[in-house]
Design brief:
The structure holds 2 protein chains of 2 kinds. Chain A is mostly helical. Chain B is mostly beta strands. Chain B is built from 4 helices and 29 strands. The N and C termini of chain B lie far apart (about 65 Å). The chains are: A mainly alpha, B mainly beta. The interface between A and B is large, with 33 and 38 residues.
């Protein structure tokens, strides 16, 4: 090989390597922006579900994410505290503050709260595969979200929808340090309120039931 | 909503029934206690069989025994050398300690030397079970500067609450080479509680029952309160005399809040020994596993007072006992009719406690206490939750996010509290127990001087610990 051709080869190789580098950077950044875009879409979807499912009506801010106190928990005892039989229950801080909100929970724990009604403070960060206490990671003594949190209705949303809500709460909200007093409740942590006889099965029974036309 | 209302009526009724049962039990407990008047004698000492200087060698056996845990009733219990509480391990700073332990229980056990700075192999953690019929020698050297009050108890995987509830706990007293306090009468006050069925057996309800669920939630408590295994015993003191009380909370879940009716006490020490200066206290909160050294002065001749357990709300609103706000008596302190003795002078300065250096901190750890979980996980012995090296100094920020207190315990290393909810700790002290009240944060600083190994950190409400509220700190060499 002549000196010149060696030089040319070296030049071509450098050019090739540079092109590979540029291409991989572009590919990497496009993957990363695609991930960002996926998470952005998920957060936007979660935001839409949070607004349309009236989370703010109890947890603060109504249906307006720009309102003060948006989802940061009970600030007035008229609309955000509930008398259920002899017990007082209170809407919690849903912003991702570690000490007072959802900051120390994973998205899976929030998913388990919405699908199974299990309090993240007291339920391990695991995949749950059963609704029988003591089986499939379902706690032997389940601690349920206080009444009137309407998780029995919202559990019928899809996995994707519930994870989108979790993503919005964890990544779409700024943390607010606001301590809400614990809810009172029965020693069975509302287990008696959430039997299949009371809240029906999940998934819901097939259409039509006796109440439905079948049309 | 009507059906919902009626459900609550049933629910409230059943809660009321549970509450009234425990009220009956406590009434029975207080009736029987009025009939007994026993001295709160210190438990016997473990005899030292070694002839070598600076060496303490003892035999300790855990076995099933029949014993009177409550007056006039014999019960099957677990006991160390036949005693509940077990005999006291009495040592001095610098001593080489060898414990020949034998497990004659029908289940695996360990002996954890709570608060003692020792090699990992002798910690008696769940990593080192001793099977039924097996023996094990524990050995450690008591470090200088660690004089104080400690205790020993089983720490087997998932069975600690059961084993301690059955009667396995005892005191460790480490005497100083040079004690700054003048010689005085020393009393051990090992506080515990228990609950019995009508036939006298110790009550451990079915975990799947409502009572079992409440125990798991609260940590098992009993209506009968004991000092050194005695119900409402007596301590005698002379007018003007000062006694040194070493108080240990060995209960499975109860947080004691003790006070001497009508007089204050002088607290001179905590888990890891003496403070720098005595602190006057009217009442004192002691979490399970926590200790305190108190100086108590005898009042007027022939007078008497009571050591009380004042209400302390550590509970979640769901499972708070109905009688949580009732003050209970623990023991009678009677001043004898003998002539007044001269009161010894108590030094204003006890010792120097060197503050750990916050500028040397190499890591800040975030520890989140959920209910029964640490950082969202239950215990896995195969997992390392915090990894560090010998010589490192770290800050641990421990946040309790639930509506129930959780007392934090770290094995192997004494720590110092920096602040609680942002309020600087008023004095420096060595601790191995720190109660983290509901919805609060505390910061501690710890230095891993030596002794590599896998050390446990956990909630010392034993039902919580047994259900996985525990983590592993690996200190690498």
């Amino acid at each position: 090989m002549t000196r010149r051709s060696a030089k040319a080869t070296w030049f071509l190789m450098s050019l090739f390597l540079a092109l590979v580098f540029v291409a991989s950077v572009a590919a990497f950044s496009s993957t990363s922006s695609r991930t960002d875009q996926v998470q952005q879409n998920q957060i936007q979807r979660g935001r839409h579900l949070v607004i349309s499912h009236a989370c703010g009506d109890c947890h603060g801010g109504g249906s307006n994410p720009a309102a003060s106190g948006w989802l940061d928990g009970m600030r007035d005892t008229i609309t955000q505290q509930f008398r259920i039989g002899p017990f007082l229950t209170r809407a919690k801080n849903l912003t991702p503050d570690v000490a007072t909100g959802t900051g120390s929970f994973t998205e899976r724990q929030i998913f388990n709260a919405l699908r199974y009604g299990l309090r993240p403070e007291e339920t391990a960060d695991v995949d749950i595969t059963s609704t029988t206490p003591g089986q499939g990671n379902f706690p032997l003594h389940p601690h349920y979200l206080a009444v009137p949190m309407p998780w029995p209705s919202w559990r019928h949303m899809s996995n994707e929808e519930l994870y989108a809500i979790a993503a919005y709460l964890k990544h779409g909200l700024k943390p607010v340090s606001h301590k809400v007093q614990d809810s009172d409740g029965p020693p069975d942590f509302w287990a008696g309120e959430y039997t299949v006889a009371k809240i029906g099965p999940h998934p819901a029974v097939k259409y039509p039931t006796a109440n439905e036309t079948g049309n | 909503m009507t059906s919902r209302r009626s459900l609550y009526a049933v629910l409230v009724l059943s809660v009321g029934l549970v509450a009234s049962t425990s009220l009956h039990e406590s009434v029975r407990a207080s009736t029987s206690r009025n009939r007994v008047d026993v001295e709160a004698a210190n438990p016997p000492l473990l005899p030292n069989i070694s002839k070598l200087p600076h060496t303490v060698e003892v035999n300790l056996t855990a076995a099933v025994t029949r014993i009177s845990l409550q007056p006039h009733v014999t019960t099957e219990a677990f006991a160390y050398n036949g005693h509940v509480p077990g005999p006291t391990l009495d040592v001095r700073e610098g001593d080489h300690v060898i414990i020949h332990f034998r497990n004659e229980l029908p289940e695996a056990t360990t002996v954890h030397w709570h608060g003692i700075h020792l090699p990992f192999e002798s910690d008696g953690s769940p990593f080192q079970p001793i099977q039924p019929g097996e023996s094990h020698d524990y050995a450690f050297t008591v470090r200088n500067g660690t004089a104080g009050t400690y205790w020993y108890h089983p720490h087997p995987d998932r069975r600690t609450g059961f084993a301690i509830g059955k009667g396995l706990f005892g005191a460790i007293v480490v005497h100083a080479m040079n004690d700054p306090l003048p010689p005085m009468s020393e009393k051990l006050l090992i506080l515990s509680d228990n609950r019995f069925l009508a036939d006298g057996t110790i009550d451990f309800p079915d975990p799947a029952s409502l009572h079992g669920g409440i125990d798991e939630e609260n940590g098992r408590e009993g209506p009968m309160l004991f000092v050194n295994g005695k119900v409402m015993p007596t301590i005698s003191i002379r007018s003007g005399e000062i006694q040194r009380w070493r108080v240990i909370n060995s209960s499975a879940g109860r947080i004691f809040r003790i006070a001497l009716a009508g007089q204050s006490m002088l607290q001179v020490g905590t888990d890891g020994g003496l403070f720098e200066k005595p602190v006057e206290v009217k009442d004192l909160v002691l979490a399970p596993g926590e200790r305190a050294e108190l100086l108590v002065k005898g009042g007027a001749k022939s007078a008497s007072t009571v050591l009380q357990n004042l209400p302390y709300d550590r509970y979640s609103p769901h499972t708070r006992p109905q009688d949580w706000d009732v003050t209970r008596d623990l023991l009678t302190l009677t001043t004898s009719g003998a002539p007044r003795v001269s009161t010894p002078a108590i030094p204003r300065s006890l010792r120097r406690v060197i503050q750990l250096d916050t500028t040397k901190v190499s890591a800040v750890r975030t520890i989140v206490f959920g209910q029964g979980m640490i950082n969202g996980h239950t215990m896995d012995m195969a997992r390392v939750d915090v990894s560090t090296r010998v010589g490192a100094t770290e800050i641990w920020e421990i946040t309790n996010i639930v509506g129930m207190d959780h007392p934090f315990h770290l094995h192997g290393f004494q720590f110092q509290v920096l602040d609680r909810d942002g309020v600087k700790e008023p004095y420096v002290a060595w601790k191995d127990m720190l109660n983290i009240p509901k919805h609060s944060t505390a910061r501690i600083i710890v230095r891993y001087d030596d002794y590599p190994g896998k050390w446990m950190f956990h909630c010392h409400i034993l039902d919580h610990e047994d259900h996985g509220m525990m983590g592993v700190l690996e200190v690498k060499p």
